[in-house]
Each structure stands twice: as C-alpha cells, then as structure tokens.
Recover the amino acids of this structure.
C-alpha cells in the first residue's frame, strides 16, 4: 500500500492532545436562532423561515469541527451568522469571551480580522479586475496596516505557506490566469493574511478536481497545526469529513441532530438521518454497482412550517407513533463524546 493510500484511509487527527474544558473554548454558540421574515406582496407579514432553530455547541482552540447536512438544512445560514454577516433572531455567539451580537464599529472589525473565511467558489470570491497582490493587500489596508514593507512581508509569507511559489511570478497575475486549485490557494492565503484565530471554510474543495481536493485538505491541516487555528468546515460531503475533522455536527432542517467525534460517527452513526447520509456517500468500490442503497423517501420539511416533534419523522423508517411526531427529542448521551437527538435512544 502506498503512502497516499494510507493517508486516504486514515482520518487526520487535527486536535492532538488539546485539552477540552471551559477555559479552552474559543467560540460558543448558545441556543442560536436565525429566522428570515417572509412578506406578502412586500408589505404584509407572511411568516418566518426557521433557517437555524436552537443550535448550541462549543468550539475549542486548535480544534477542527465539521458541520454536515444536505442543501437547505441551515448550515450556510449558521456559518454566515458566525461570520457576523447575518444578525441572529435569538441566542448568543461568544468569541474569545466577547458576545459578537453586541460588537460595533472597531470591535466588529477586530472580530472579523480574527475570523478567516474560505469561500466555496474561489473565482467568484475574488475581484476579476484586481491582481493577486492587490487582492491580498486589500484586507491589510482596510484593517489599518499602512506600512508598505510590512504588507509586502506578510503577502510573501502567506503565499509561501500556501505553496504559491515563486511568489514574484504570481503577484501580478489576475484570477482568470490561475487554475482552480491555485485560485483556492489564493483565497486561503487571503483568509490567513490577518493572522486569524478561527477559519470558516464553506465547502472549500467541492468545486475542485478529486486529485486537488486532498492537496487542499492537507494544506489546511498544515496551516492549522502551524498556527494553532480552530476550523469550522461546512460541507455536505461526509467522504471528506472523515479525513479532516475532530468532531462532526450533523444538521437537518435547522437543527443539529447528532454530535460526535469523527471516528465514532463514521463507524457507529446513531440518528437515522446520519445513517442515510453515510449510506449515500460514494465509495470507490466496484461492488457498489450491485447494491441498491436504502435512501429515505420524501423531501426535507418546509422551514416555514416545520413539523411537530422530530423534524425527520416524516421520512424516518423507525418512527415511534405518538412520540416522534409529537414531542421534539432532547439530546441523549449515548456515550462520551457522542450525542444524538432521537427518541430511539431514550
């Protein structure tokens, strides 16, 4: 077996021996709700879209977590609220002992300088009329780094870290002159330019070729280890999660339904929805052509009028009548570091 095959089979341990306790929490999301108002003909109130509905979790220093779910589950709304792009309807987000909902002006600028954002579409994330040097200078100028020498030194440092070498060759280029993998490396360099404490990556490899995906994930791993970063990795692809994260949070219809260490979740998924996600994950095995995979019927529920009880009960093959369709499940601790919101584990 080659080294590359071993790397693909073994989950990456990002966190190492980082101690998890209340003193080590970098980001705390507490009972977060993000609802978007609907209006009839632009005037009359017509309800709310419950995009994020009661989400809570802690992210520790030097830890990588993945937020997983299908399109429309609320993971992007959660991410944008953490980035302070959306205002929460209810709940708190505490970063480095500061409530970001209360930050304004320079305080909010400080917060955004400490959180790097890696977009899904690297070409769309960069201004096509700016050179690579200008793209990387922009956040430094906005955040008050006026010393030209310091700007140049920082730009050279981050480009070397993301393996865009020789640096002088890439600085005058424009985004359309780069390959998809190179564009994503520039986006990562821009996210790192202000020396953040937290990286938020929105499906950073979904638009790249399979061969490039592994390189980008390993690059992010190396940056996290070197700089001691915390990472939030937002994705719908469980096949990449197992190689990247310490813990996985599975979202469905605006709620986190399962929280687990990555090995526990991959080897022993508890929630029926998590089991379905893993079942739908493609594996490079020819035997899959002869297997009919069991996929839950139906579609995710409307977030305008969410169903009572467990939001997955309309599609769940293990529904307990009179319970799952009536009462919302609390979090049950199946074992240490493995929590599930499902009445099957009461």
């Amino acid at each position: 077996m080659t080294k590359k095959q071993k790397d693909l089979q073994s989950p990456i341990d990002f966190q190492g021996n980082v101690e998890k306790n209340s003193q080590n929490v970098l980001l705390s999301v507490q009972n977060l709700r993000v609802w978007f108002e609907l209006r009839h003909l632009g005037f009359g109130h017509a309800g709310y879209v419950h995009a994020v509905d009661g989400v809570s979790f802690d992210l520790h220093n030097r830890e990588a977590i993945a937020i997983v779910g299908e399109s429309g589950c609320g993971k992007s709304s959660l991410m944008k609220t953490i980035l302070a792009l959306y205002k929460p309807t209810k709940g708190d987000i505490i970063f480095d002992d500061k409530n970001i909902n209360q930050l304004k002006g320079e305080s909010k600028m400080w917060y955004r300088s400490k959180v790097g954002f890696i977009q899904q579409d690297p070409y769309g994330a960069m201004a096509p009329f700016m050179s690579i040097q200008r793209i990387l200078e922009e956040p430094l100028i906005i955040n008050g780094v006026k010393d030209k020498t310091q700007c140049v030194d920082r730009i050279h440092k981050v480009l070397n870290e993301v393996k865009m070498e020789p640096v002088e060759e890439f600085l005058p280029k424009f985004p359309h002159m780069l390959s998809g993998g190179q564009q994503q490396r520039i986006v990562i360099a821009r996210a790192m330019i202000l020396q953040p404490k937290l990286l938020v990556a929105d499906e950073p490899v979904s638009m790249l070729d399979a061969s490039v995906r592994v390189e980008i994930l390993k690059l992010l791993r190396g940056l996290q280890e070197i700089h001691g970063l915390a990472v939030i990795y937002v994705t719908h692809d469980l096949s990449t999660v197992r190689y990247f994260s310490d813990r996985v949070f599975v979202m469905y219809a605006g709620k986190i339904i399962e929280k687990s260490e990555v090995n526990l979740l991959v080897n022993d998924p508890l929630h029926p929805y998590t089991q379905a996600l893993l079942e739908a994950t493609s594996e490079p095995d020819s035997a899959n052509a002869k297997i009919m995979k069991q996929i839950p019927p139906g579609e995710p529920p409307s977030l305008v009028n969410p169903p009572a009880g467990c939001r997955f009960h309309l599609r769940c093959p293990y529904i307990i009548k009179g319970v799952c369709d009536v009462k919302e499940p609390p979090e049950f601790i199946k074992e240490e570091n493995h929590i599930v919101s499902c009445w099957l584990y009461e």
Summary: The chain is about 30% helix and 25% strand. The chain has one domain: 24-281. Residues 28 and 317 are 34 Å apart (CA to CA).
